[in-house]
Amino acid sequence: MIWKYKTLTYTFAEITLNKNQAYNQFRVYMRSLSAYNLVSTHFMRQLFGLIITLTFLASCSEPYIKLDPNTFNEKISSRADIQTPEKLMEIYYDNPTSEGNSKRTIQTKVLGDNSVEITLIHEGLQDDSESGEKIVMTAKQIGQTWSVIEIKKNWKCRNGRGHKSWGTTPCY
Fold first, then answer.
1. Is the Cβ–Cβ distance between 139 and 146 less than 8 Å?
2. In this structure, which topology does domain 65-157 adopt according to CATH?
């Protein structure tokens, strides 16, 4: 049996021989891999997996606007009556709680360095463009007073007014 392809003529025996030669060359190449190459290949696979994981985690994180905590720290520096992280957030977020059908939640999370992450989520805002607001505050109690380390903020837009997930792009 003879095939013609672009002015080259191959017989069935030649095609079989070329296929066998290619397979043998591949086997020789695979055997030539040293332990270093195998370790290197394993390392590269792990590195690639780490890069993919970090990319995924970074894409999942929310964008925030950082706010300056110094003005608020001055306001609370002499106050020894703030007993809980929730009360600290309520003093910072001085918005009325009786705003229509809005819902406010405050969650706290103790961090490893004796600081506290306080998250306030206020949804159902009486605003024509924003539907919710989130404030994340990191604070530390020193004796009877609190010191705010960081304040971050983001928001959600109403349907048809921009992004519906937490973000920092202005709503319209």
1. yes
2. Nuclear Transport Factor 2; Chain: A, (3.10.450)
- In angstroms, the Cα distances linking 94 to 8, 42, 44, 91, 167 are 84, 55, 52, 6, 22
* CB neighbourhood size of 50 (10 A): 10
* Domain positions in the chain: 2-60, 65-157
CA gap 42, 73 in Å, rounded: 51
For tokens 């025996």, name the residue: 13
Task: Please tell me the distance from the alpha carbon of residue 135 to that of residue 127, in angstroms, as a whole number.
Answer: 17
3-state secondary structure at position 119: strand
Read off the pLDDT of residues 59-84 as tens digits, 9 standing for 90 and up.
557 899 999 999 999 999 999 999 99
Q: How far apart are CA 117 and CA 125, in angstroms?
A: 23
Find out whether 102 and 93 touch, Cβ atoms under 8 Å: no
pTM above 0.90, yes or no: no
